Amino acid sequence: xxxxxxxxxxxxxxxxxxxxxxxxxxxxxxxxSGCGKSMTLKCIAGIEKPDEGVIIINGKTVFDSSKRIxxxxxxxxxxxxxxxxxxxxTMTVRQNLEIVLKNTKGIEKQNRVEQMLVRLSIGALAGRxxxxxxxxxxxxxxxxxxxxxxxxxxxxxxxxxxxxxxLRNQIEHELREILADYHGTVLFVSHNRxxxxxxxxxxxILDEGRVVASGSTDELxxxxxxxxxxxxxxxxxxxxxxxxxxxxxxxxxxGIELDTAVSVPDDLQxxxxxxxxxVPGEVGKNSNxxxxxxxxxASTPFSHTEYLTLxxxxxxxxxxxxxxxxxxxxxxxxxxxxQTQYKCYCLPxxxxxxxx
Amino acid sequence: xxxxxxxxxxxxxxxxxxxxxxxxEIIVSAAASLTDAMKELIVAYQKVDSSVKVTPTFGSSxxxxxxxxxxxxxxxxxxAAPKQMNALEQQGLILSNTRKDILENQVVLIVPKDSKAQxxxxxxxxxxxxxxxxxxxxxxxxxxxxSEEIFKKLGILDVIKAKSVYAKDVRxxxxxxxxxxxxxxxxxxxxxxxxxxVTVVAxxxxxxxxxxxxPAAIVKASAQPKVAKDFLAWLSSxxxxxxxxxxxxxxx
Amino acid sequence: MDWxxxxxxxxxxxxxxxxxxxxxxxxxxxxxxxxxxxKALLDGILILPMVLPPTVVGFFLLLIFGRNSPVGKFLLDxxxxxxxxxxxxxxxxTVVSFPxxxxxxxxxxxxxDPTLVQAAKTLGLSDVLIFxxxxxxxxxxxxxxxxxxxxxRALGEFGATLMVAGNIPGRxxxxxxxxxxxxxGGDMAQAKIxxxxxxxxxxxxxxxxxxxxxxxxxxxxxx
Lengths: 356, 252, 223
Hints:
Chain A is an alpha+beta fold. Chain A has helices at 37-45, 93-98, 106-119, 135-148, 165-178, 193-199, 217-222, 227-232, 328-333; strands spanning 3-10, 15-22, 26-31, 52-57, 60-64, 69-70, 78-81, 153-157, 185-190, 202-207, 210-216, 237-240, 242-245, 248-251, 256-259, 270-273, 279-280, 289-300, 303-310, 322-327, 341-346, 353-355. A six-stranded mixed sheet of chain A has the order 7-8-9-3-10-11, sandwiched between helices. Chain A has a five-stranded antiparallel sheet with strand order 2-1-4-5-6, with no helix packed on it.
């Protein structure tokens, strides 16, 4: 285990209770703002102190409340990339790197700094001050600074939140390249599920201070398991569901009954279906197909969203609309127009998510 | 119309009645050495004329002289030396015909009560055992002037200057000696007598300095010259004289 | 004309400001690391000389260094007489200028982005290194501003100085004391000369610091 965390900390709105472990891998920590993900990183780094628990980094116990061990941040060797990068403003890039090697002298120090500057392609920036660097350049310097100390673990706190969309991809790519040589655990904190999905093979989902889902990223996206996890992984259609048969459920707020591909668990509370899984269908030919009243909602350059509600002729109750999303190619080929119309859509049984 | 007249008449009466029963106030600027004596005299004067409120203000004669020159609302000025009164008279700021010398004083050499410097006469101040002496600032404090005259006469002025700390009035000199931060100081006999923390070791012989006379006069700009004159006249009365003598002043 | 008040004032002010600078910076760093009631209490004590009337400060100094106090007696035994010495002018000036250096610098320290210190800690930098290499350079303008204020205060110190150092021409008579006694003794011309000199010194100082301050920190401005 390169990192083992089991901590508890009382915060203003809830109690943070996180238990996670990782082994030399990129682990995503996904959660909405204020759910305690940054606080978890800070506890690992030693900047904040949990009320109780244990933190072990690469076999070294840095925190253990029962044994009254609490190493200062300086002794933990945990690299932390702050959202604002925290470069020292009165020092040049070179000085920012040099200061990490406070115990090294002369030639060796110069060499190591030069190597790092070359490795991260920031040699040309060596004499500049942080205020003279762009966001991406600052991130590279901040990472260089962290790597200078040969960290036992690297923690990225929402590394792309402050960046423009265009830069985001580029810098994400750069980050992966830079850290390709780093073989320790990388904890990647974000509220953006796409980033976590792209970069992390394993992930933890945090909601209100607790880990509500943990495991392989692929698996969690396919099968979130809980309401919170489903929401955080971007499922837009979630509703209360009741088991009415081994492979049948009733969803009151959508006004429909659905067939499922596998046996329905007894503790089923909600059902979910991802917006892009709803496809056109034919009543009678495909299961779970219904005539919906379609209201086009929003178009971005690359996707089209529709709201689907059951035909009012068949029911008088107030229903929650389903959201359907299609990428722009399909929109063109299906000849969408802005008028309300009736269409039959299918909720494929194999795409239904059982949620607790 | 009638109502307004009634209102104004009663307001007028009220103000006048109030004014009639208010006390007349006079301000007396007196040299610092007169502090204790003057306070006791003012209390005594209350019994003589209770319609008058005498407000004293104390300081070095030089400082008080300047205040009057700058227009301070003083009615009666009592200086510890003729110099300051002369300056005011030259500028026409006092009523010359009211000027009179009311007191005399003596200059003494004092040391802290627990002093080990073995000072017994003025000449001893030049000796090595005396490291620091408190004197009044000669330019503004009369007792400082007299001290300088003494040292000049004894020919030790330069030696003394090197060891002197100058106070802004005679009471400050006294305080410095009481505190023990200086080895000796020169004050008036009247100051030494009120302190229990100092010992008088010598009195300046007559003739070694100019006579220490306290002139008093009414300030020309006084708003209450008659009241001030009455008070000044009373300062020469037997009752007042007893108080002055109690504080070791010599009454003229 | 006797120029000793100028010499004494400059010697005293520079010495006092230098001491206040060192003490002020150290105190600010120490206090910033504290919390809650202890912090509030200590801070209150340290800025007290700034809010008390100078004569009250002088009174306390007399109490501490006077012949009758334990500290005073101890020093006298060592042959050091504080009251009415030149050193007393430095003590009085230091005590009143210290709070200005301390408070201004502390304000600058507290405005530093806390993540900078946190980052420095995670990178393994000791608290001492963080202070000298990161916090001090960033908060330097505050240190300079506080020191200038402190110097001006030290130069103009009168009440406490008079009480504990007295008026001894050539030894403790600083310019403000000279002005007071010149005016008191009626020598307005002399008083005016000293007033002009003090105004000239103070203005020159503030002007020089403004000039230096502006160009010194252009590089910290964001684009």
